[in-house]
Amino acid sequence: MQRTAGIHHITAMVNDAQKTIDFYVGVLGMRLVKKTINFDRPEVYHLYFGNESGHPGTVITFFPWEHQLKGRIGTGQVGMTSYLIPEHSLAFWQQRLKSYGQRFIQTVRFGETSLQFQDPDGLEIELVERSGGPLNTWSTSDIPAEFAIKGFGGATLLSAKPHKTAEVLENVLGLTCIGQEETILRFQSEDILGNIIDIKLSPSVRGLMGAGTVHHIAWRAKDEEELHKWRELVAENGYYPTEIRDRNYFKAVYFHEEGGILFEIATDSPGFTVDEPLEELGQKLMLPSWFEDKREELEATLPDIKVPNLGGEE
To answer: 73 FRET partner, CA 20 to 30 A, in 240, 262, 293, 295?
Structure first.
């Protein structure tokens, strides 16, 4: 059976590009690995944050548009994004969040302790200690590698039809159901990062797309050849995948599963160094070739943003 390795990336909608950068870089210590545009709405940034190289399983991306209405987290969406932190780093993150005035709660699920809080737009986030996965080599002056976020721990899905969503995870994407705790059904994929997916079985309000909500969750395909196979498999199971779309840093197909969540399947290659070297990732606006003739117009339209200088070390 064809199986996805796990989460490729998660994409969310926010209002303010600068506040998003200040939080994900300045507070969480992630690297801005790509500053580009929404290929479907070029007047809007598309910002990618991850580990040093933006390896699949570490990247959250944002469409920041100040004019969009506030959304509501609910069914048909990713409810919570989980980030993986090294063992014995929980106290460090408790102190760090407190120092930034960030409210959080501590909770235990499936025997794992996590810190749950919201980003500036209200996206639900948690930090969970787990031993698996390499340390993040992108450290900053105040977040050493032994405490830095490794990448995704996973995600919690809010589905209008939880058991239909579970069927897709298990029978199409190839994840394994590893247990249930109260109203949470847990699945696991094969990779170390982005490999734990929870489905909330209890009812939730209907989600409304807008700022502070996740737009879609993307699953990993090794390459374009495998992506074609995924597209065929999705169609064979009664879903309606899009044509393969070129996102410059990966190729992708999209489909809605029956619980209303927008799923994407994206290739690991070519990655974020396809148009700029590793050491320069995220420093300037990168455009796909078909938008280069509009660079001057786009740079005049997009808001000015600055990335905090935190002494990042490669």
So the answer is: 240
